[in-house]
Amino acid sequence: WDRMIEKGLSKTTEFIHALAIMAAVLLTGGLAFKYIEGWTFLEAFYFSFVTASSVGYGDLSPKSRTGRAFAIPFCIISVALIMYVMSVIQGALMGILFKRSLDRIGDDTAFVSMAQADNQTDLAAERNSTLRNTRRRARGCCGRLWTAVVEAESLHRLLLSVVLTFVLILGGALFMRSQEHWSFTNSFYFCFITLSTVGYGDLVPT
Questions:
Q1: How far apart are CA 122 and CA 102, in angstroms?
Q2: From CA 57, how far away is CA 84, in angstroms rounded?
């Protein structure tokens, strides 16, 4: 039970931190777009939120080169953050629903069973930990080498994904620049906004 309370408090703290970071990003975006595009703060904040949610209504969109260049990193950061916030909210809601279901049952044996299950889990975890430590010592250098290989492979996949995405956007930008006679900044901006599924509609192929 104590462990459940501790996890609940941890989730609540994580939720508050996530909301604070998201609010800071949206406020930063609002102030930046207000200054760059000359919008009111409400319009700039609204645009930042629409971008972060990847909705992209198209009623507001950056017109200046600086605004479009700033929209690209802002979109990456804000969309990633809002996905993280949604995952934290989902975890918090699941915890609340689970607690309410326990309260609705109102049976103390449920808590006793949970405590026994926790104790059994702790014993199993200790045995597994001892076994893992024994195996780890037996593997020695081979285990560390394997871990390094796995980490290097994960990093390689991440870098490959980033490079391929950049190449895709860059190739699309060069193509749109040659076909639509846009500037490279507008072409890159169009391809990125399209790939991110935001799609303001301020730039469209003719």
A1: 22
A2: 22
Q: Would you call 3 helix, strand, or coil by DSSP?
A: helix
Residue pair 61/33 in contact (Cβ under 8 Å)? The answer is: no
Rounded CA-CA distance 172/190 in Å is 9
Cβ–Cβ under 8 Å, residues 34 and 41: yes
Q: Which of 72, 21, 32 is nearest to 51 (CA)?
A: 72
Q: Are 48 and 26 a contacting pair, CB within 8 Å?
A: yes
Q: Return the structure tokens found at 190.
A: 């169009």
Q: Which amino acid is located at 138 in the chain?
A: A
**Beta strands, E only, the chain:** none
pLDDT in tens, 2-53: 555 455 556 667 778 878 888 898 999 999 999 999 999 999 999 999 998 8
Nearest CA among 196, 204, 163, 185 for reference residue 70: 185
Is residue 52 within 8 A of residue 25, CB to CB? The reply is yes
Residues 6+ apart with CB under 8 A from 52: 22, 25, 26, 29, 75, 78, 79, 81, 82
